[in-house]
Amino acid sequence: MSVGVSRASSLRVQQASCRVGRRHTIKVRAAAASRLAGVEMAPPDPILGVSVAFNKDTSADKLNLGVGAYRTEDLKPYVLKVVRKAEERMLAKAENKEYLPIEGLAAFNKATMELLLGADSPAIKEQRVACLQSLSGTGSLRVGAAFIAKFMPGTTVYISRPTWGNHKNIFSDAGVEWKEYSYFDAETVGLDFDGMLADLEAAPDGSVVLLHGCAHNPTGVDPTQEQWVKIVDLLQKKKHLPFIDSAYQGFASGSLEQDAFLPRYLVERGIEFATAQSYSKNLGLYAERVGAMSFVLADSDAAQRVLSQLKRLARAIYSNPPVHGARIVSEVVGSEEMFGEWKGEMEMMAGRIKGVRQDLHDALVKVNPDKDWSFVLKQIGMFTFTGMTPAQCDNMTNKWHIYMTRDGRLSLAGLSSAKAAYLAEAMADSVANH
Ligand SMILES: Cc1ncc(COP(=O)(O)O)c(C=O)c1O
């Protein structure tokens, strides 16, 4: 039985009699109030808290469209076949569990740089990349934020409005000031390109600009390549440092190469940048916490010095990264056969999400033909950003047992074709009546 807060505190001050067995009654003095009694309860996480609430719901209709995690058509978690294969090979090799170097597994570092920048990138050849294996996307961003706090004091990080729910926490906790730039136009359900350029123009020269490499979370709206070119022109003119959050490489288009347009273009333009990579989504390694924090710099001397400081920061936070996920990535990327299989599975996952996106759109048109639902098809990646208000989102959960974040984001990776009509009915009801 859980003890409520008020009952717990009354227990602290009262002397309780406690019966032990049938014969002995002993006097127990409850513990004094905790020295941490003043610590307030933190709010539940806006994304991961949704999964906790979902797990408690007993309805047969329930759907978890909160967290961005890929599910099969049966709505089961999916372990990529190529990951299982890599793990079998790893088991056969019976490798040891010794500490990795602070910067991570060398084969992983090579693979991750090549995936992002291309195997024959001049930045890699000229050893201008400071690459630190880190704890997936979040941990990589956090080390990057710590680096900014220490070596770029007073610099503001500009983040898109809206953005992934954790970005603000990451920079705030590292003591880095952040401000927002315009990104989403609710009217057109598209990019507010002019607003974005105006805000980045107005930012002090030399600011850090956090950019989603592809499949912007939560909006599913990316700049076109022509728009990226203009954005990069401005970043260069203003001497801003681009910081690319690359959490969905392969998930936007189904192609690893196409989704790496931005970092490769920055290399082509000779612009220095920072980047945080994650393998949670594209290899389904959510719980393995594998990713990388890198700086692509003008020369190898700068890269060596920056890497040494990234290592120093990581050493004091978590010492060195976990090995299992890093071995999987390097096995998959290091074998031509497995790399090809991975690409196939990624296309399959991206394709399934595109399929349910179409199903949802068609079902919405059926249930309410008078409303324009075309935004569902325009957006890309794992999510659809519906523009639903918090009250409408609450109706989705309370009445329809559909769990989602209260910013109106739905993860289509957690939807099946079979459930598309149910979701459409719930959305149409919530939009019309709340
Ligand atoms: C935009 C963005 N960045 C980073 C992450 C980090 O994810 P992880 O820490 O699981 O790699 C996510 C996860 O949802 C994300 O959406």
UniProtKB/TrEMBL annotation:
PROSITE patterns in the cross-refs: AA_TRANSFER_CLASS_1
Cited InterPro entries: Aminotransferase_I/II_large, Asp_trans, NHTrfase_class1_PyrdxlP-BS, PyrdxlP-dep_Trfase, PyrdxlP-dep_Trfase_major, PyrdxlP-dep_Trfase_small
A Pfam family assignment: Aminotran_1_2
SUPFAM superfamilies (alphabetical): PLP-dependent transferases
Entry annotated with the keyword Transport: no
Cofactor(s) of this protein: pyridoxal 5'-phosphate
Family: Belongs to the class-I pyridoxal-phosphate-dependent aminotransferase family.
Miscellaneous information on this protein: In eukaryotes there are cytoplasmic, mitochondrial and chloroplastic isozymes.
Subunit structure, as described in the record: Homodimer.
Protein name: Aspartate aminotransferase
Organism: Chlorella vulgaris
Lineage, uppermost ranks: Eukaryota, Viridiplantae, Chlorophyta, core chlorophytes, Trebouxiophyceae
